[in-house]
Amino acid sequence: MYSIDFNILITNNCPNVLLKNKLLALIQVFIIPIKVLYTDLFNYKIQIDEQLRYNSQIIYMTKLLNDKFNGGNVGIYIEDVANISYTKIFNKAEGYPLITLYKKSENNTVITIKKKSEYDSIIDFNVRVPLFIYLQLTANNNKLLKQMQAYINMYKLAGKRYNIISL
Question: How confident is the model at residue 37 (pLDDT cuts 50, 70, 90)?
Answer without folding.
Answer: very high
